[in-house]
Amino acid sequence: MPHHPNKHRGFPLQAEPVTGRETTAELLSRAYLSYGGREIRHAYELLVRAIRENHIIFLTFSGALTPADLARGCINPLIERGIIDVICTTGANLYHDVHRSLGFVLEEGTPHVDDRTLREERIIRIYDIFFDEDVLLDTDRFFSEVMRQPEFQRSMTTAEFHDRLGQYVTELERQRREPVHPSLLATCFRHRVPIFCGAPQDGSIFLNAVKLKKEAPDTFRFQLDALEDVFEFSAYQYWAKTQAPGKMTILILGGGVPKNYTLQGEPLLSQIFGIDTEGFDIDIQISDANVHTGGLSGCPASEGHTWGKTSADCVINSIFCHGDVTQIFPLLTHAVAQQDLRKEPRRLADLREDVLANLHAALRNRQ
């Protein structure tokens, strides 16, 4: 349909009757015309563009998404299609995603319950998700045993750490007799997708490391190097801007530390190192956060542009879907899968040394 001659006006709003025979993509284009619906449609359109233009896509997600099994349901399928190249999330999401790999079942509960009774029955609640306290205790034992292994007794970045954890979880799932959909850690290990965590100490995996250090201070030498972690993450972003096609997209589910940790790579490169990278080219956000509180979680791409986190083009190539991730993201994933959209997998974890060397060389040339 033609644009209105006035440049400040757009397409005529004209819905097509819903018949039930539409694909999800067709439904989005024909019935999601305005308000929050338009935001979802535009998010899908931008995601399709990022895939078809072969952007390096960074996924960030916060909140209790893995207890709701959103990783197995939505994130893993995108990884398997080569769509997600790098991830930043919380330690809690990685911890809780292993419960099912250990054979535990998380159940649908209700928020309308006396939590004092649940505590007496040793039942943990995440809003409307219930599981036994033993789930936590056995998961703690698993991570403690893994982190005692020799290859963990050194300093490493969170991406290195999660890659090694993914190898152990992959083997755990292989040994299970009953069918199990792989965890996020195992899926990223197999497809060589780096996973970063901006606040690893704020999660139970790291709490077990604290215990191991106090139990064996002379032999437990594992530690996470925060300085190298930030450098490595920014190196992947510099790589994205210096390799063909030189474009990158950020897909944000929620907000919080993962969002900021991912977006801070560009200020580090441009303002601290003096290497201009222009920031992300497409910005897709799904969050219930509000912008008027001044918090980072509700910050749109245009505000991020003032910090150098997003490019000038990204100011218009962006969308903020206001709503619950669990309501919106499965719809977008379904549309992508139904259209059989995919990218050539980059397997960036295998390129780690080249990625780091690329940024080191840029720093030397700058001097």
Task: Please outline the helices and strands.
Elements (H helix, E strand, L loop, with lengths): L23 H8 L3 H18 L3 E6 L8 H11 L5 E4 L1 H6 L10 E2 L6 H6 L2 E4 L2 E4 H15 L7 E2 L1 H18 L8 H8 L3 E2 L7 H12 L7 E2 L1 H17 L5 E6 L2 H8 L1 H8 L9 E6 L13 H5 L12 E5 L2 H14 L13 H15 L1
Parallel strand pairs: 1-2, 1-9, 2-7, 6-8, 9-10, 10-11
Antiparallel strand pairs: 3-5, 4-5
Could you please describe the fold and organization of this structure?
With 367 residues, this protein is an alpha/beta fold. It has one domain: Deoxyhypusine synthase (Deoxyhypusine Synthase), CATH 3.40.910.10. It has helices spanning 24-31, 35-52, 70-80, 91-96, 115-120, 133-147, 158-175, 184-191, 204-215, 226-242, 256-263, 265-272, 301-305, 325-338, 352-366; strands spanning 56-61, 86-89, 107-108, 123-126, 129-132, 155-156, 195-196, 223-224, 248-253, 282-287, 318-322. A 6-stranded parallel beta sheet has the order 7-2-1-9-10-11, with helices on both faces.
Keyword list:
alpha/beta, 367 residues
State Rg. 21 Å
* Low-pLDDT ranges: none
Name the beta content range.
5-15%
Order of strands in the sheet with the most strands?
7-2-1-9-10-11
At the fourth level of CATH, the homologous superfamily is: Deoxyhypusine synthase
Task: Give the total of beta strands.
Answer: 11
